[in-house]
Amino acid sequence: MAQAPALPTGFELPLEPRLPRIGSIDQVAVEARATDLSRRSIKREAKLFALDLSVRMMDLTTLEGADTPGKVAALASKAIRPDPSDSSVPSVAAVCIYPNLVQTARERVAGSGVKVASVATAFPSGQSPTDLKVAEARRVVELGADEVDMVIDRGAFLAGRYAKVYDEIVQVKEAVGDKHLKVILETGELGTYDNVRRASLLAIAAGADFIKTSTGKLSTSATMPVTLVMLEAIRDVFEETGRRVGMKPAGGIRNAKQAVQTLVLVHETLGLDWLTPDLFRFGASSLLNDVLMQIRKEKTGRYQSPDYFTID
Amino acid sequence: MSELEQRGDRAPIPSAWEYATAPESREIVKLQERYGIFVGGEFVEPRSGEYYETLDPSSEEPLAEIPQAGPEDVALAVENAREAFQNGWSAASPAERAKYLFRIARILQERSREFAVLETLNGGKPIRESRDVDLPLAAAHFFYYAGWADKLEYAFPHRRPQPLGVAGQIIPWNFPLLMLAWKIAPALAGGNTVVLKPAETTPLSALLFCDVLRQAELPPGVVNIVTGDGATGAAIVKSEVDKIAFTGSTEVGKAIQRELAGTGKKLTLELGGKAANIIFDDAALDQAVEGIVNGIYFNQGHVCCAGSRLLVQESIYEPLIDKLKRRLTTLRVGDPLDKNTDVGAINSRQQLEKIEELVAAGKEEGAEIYQPPCRLPEKGYWFVPTVFTNVAQSYRIAQEEIFGPVLSVLTFRTPDEAVEKANNTPYGLSAGVWTEKGSRILWMAERLQAGVIWANTYNRFDPASPFGGYKESGFGREGGLHGLEPYLDFEGAEVSGG
């Protein structure tokens, strides 16, 4: 009766290190679990801890056609000192930008500890020839990016050409060398949680340092159940091989409450070890100000007008 | 910049993230020092003159004094119920009966926070569950049966449904208000009147419910609540009622059946269980783990349909048990009123002793015990969520209902063996099947001797779905149309010409 879970056609995983079974995800149950966890009531010092951590974990992002050096300079300042009136608020983890702005960002964050993350590989669609994508990834590293956020080829994935998706990630990983590679699955286009799990394991097998939910260019992005499915894939890989892969939900997390709920998800799925910017990031643009506002509210007991928080 | 540099690079991994306490306020509940029995629409002092204390099992703090109703109190309640039945309720237009049920349902919704806090205070269950499960379902049951009250002719075409008369109802302590709803809603919808006894340890929500009845202006005597221990229950069984509905232990159920033999009184029994939760190797593992947890640790395992016997296909035994043990370390055991508590207090000292006795037996018989590290409060009745592995079918922990947060794990190799092991019990209340294969779910459901079978989920309830047992788990169904039948008489049915 027992069969090994079927691997998708063309998806041949390297035998070493051993990977967990692909398995399947039950949609109803995974959504129920995510809802349950988002009902945790996080208050006072526990909340402040999560808010502070959320700032440290943030990849402050601007990915617009209209981005200019001026815009990125402002973003970099905000990243280094998110709340100029409160020196206890830490810097964010990184700024996340398009390749053309890597140099500007590099200069602006120099010496601050804030990392520069660049998208690459024909972001957001990934619909370009492989050699161009690999070249782009190599180039953004040369320009000074510390971290590279690549997209998978969803066209190939949905057509069942898993090997192509896999090979591309392997090549990009080679091209970026020791820089951190985050692999964007664009879960909103994958259609099922089974696919999200498959793509997560595939990206991890191919060498991803982080797996990331979304480009932020779709209306459906980092939902709680999708994040949970990816965290569980990371956990299974860790249990099986001891390898620690990071997670980055991006897009759709707009307020502090969602950020805290997401951290609860991480805490109760992967434990304390993942509560660090080395293994967990938020990709967001508007989230930071809400977190800052909540931090000030927790500290002073009062809400302040949004006008007191800078827009960058 | 040096300060920032320090912060930006290699943030330390935190040593702990303790969730701050988040207790639901108990201010909303106003308790009386002493209650009466609710008879004929009024609280009256028990003729027995006896009272006992009801406790908060999480702190052993006394909450109120409760009447220990004697046979004369029960007789008075039955008299009132009979009078209400004969003088109005049974002849009331069905739409009129529906009106009251709808009112009760709405009032329960409006006062749900108050009831949830009280349920948690008196029963020890986490507020998360009383708030998200007990209360919404209790209201849903009244809504559901309110809808049937004026459609009985259509529900049972050509069978001329008539009310039975006075129903004596005896309910358990695990879901005090929900079990009350399961019993009272179909009885009233069918045109009966009621004498109900809540469990000895959890009478408070039933007594607060009397306030709802008055608020809904339900005619006096239609619902009467008497409190007390098993002796009060026995008095109801012996009294002049037309029907007994009992939810509780198999032992007491058998005694009731013996007592009623030959009396012509109708009977439905919803008794114990030792349900198999069966995990096939193609199941979605992480979700199956959630289902196992929900199956046995929901309401501290005080659930008659709890998935207390886990049957795992051998080929996935290790990863599944690893995942389960890991998951147990995240269960939060403690103050039931804290919104983050997953597992609350054991309902009573007596129940705690029973659990401890069976767990000791499991260890002695040679099963391997796993309990996650867990700080338990000093006062109150507590038991750490427990998993027994290496359990043989013959062990007491695989045979007897523990009614606590204790799971016994067994393995199987083939679907046939799973069915055989699952059915190898005197009980037959429920079962769970976890597989991605639709055809196998149906194949299993045909063969499992259980009244309720869940596929890829566990402990889900809906008023439209009938619930009840096979074998020593009882007979009769509650919920759905099936749940109306035990409260109706069809003796005047037309004889069909076929």
Low-confidence stretches of chain A: 1-12
Q: Supply the CATH architecture of chain A.
A: Alpha-Beta Barrel
Average pLDDT rating of chain A = 92
**Alpha-beta classification of chain A:** alpha/beta
Give, in spatial order, the strands making up the sheet with the most strands of chain A: 7-6-5-4-3-2-1-8
The domain count of chain B comes to: 2
How far apart lie the N and C ends of chain B? 95 Å
Strand content of chain B: 15-25%
| The named CATH superfamily of chain A | Aldolase class I
Distance between the termini of chain A: 59 Å
Quick check: average pLDDT of chain B? Answer: 95
CATH topology of chain A: TIM Barrel
Rg of chain A, rounded, reads 19 Å
Please tally the helical runs of chain B, counting DSSP H or I stretches of 4 or more residues. 16
Q: Which oligomerization state do the chains in this entry correspond to?
A: heterodimer
Instruction: Label the CATH architecture of the largest domain in chain B.
Output: 3-Layer(aba) Sandwich
Task: Tell me the strand percentage band of chain A.
Answer: 5-15%
Structural class of chain B: alpha/beta
Shape of chain A: globular
Describe the model.
The complex is a heterodimer of chains A (312) and B (498). With 312 residues, chain A is α/β, with parallel strands linked by helices. Chain A has a single domain (27-300), classed as Aldolase class I (TIM Barrel, Alpha-Beta Barrel). Chain A is 44% helix and 11% strand. Chain A contains eleven helices and eight strands. Chain A has helices at 27-37, 44-56, 69-80, 102-109, 130-142, 154-158, 162-176, 193-206, 224-241, 256-269, 287-300; strands at residues 58-61, 94-97, 115-120, 147-151, 180-184, 210-212, 246-248, 282-284. The longest helix of chain A has 18 residues, at 224-241. Mean pLDDT of chain A is 92; it is low at 1-12. Chain B is α/β, with parallel strands linked by helices and 498 residues long. Chain B has two domains: 37-271 and 476-489, Aldehyde Dehydrogenase, Chain A, domain 1 (3-Layer(aba) Sandwich), CATH 3.40.605; 276-462, Aldehyde Dehydrogenase, Chain A, domain 2, CATH 3.40.309. In chain B, the strands form five sheets. A seven-stranded mixed sheet of chain B has the order 13-14-15-12-11-16-17, sandwiched between helices. In chain B, strands 8-7-6-9-10-18 form a six-stranded mixed sheet, with helices on both faces. In chain B, strands 1-2 form a two-stranded antiparallel sheet. In chain B, α4 crosses α5, α5 (127-149) runs parallel beside α7 (176-189) and α11 (285-296) crosses α12 (317-328). Chain B is globular and about 70 Å long. The interface between A and B is large, with 48 and 45 residues.
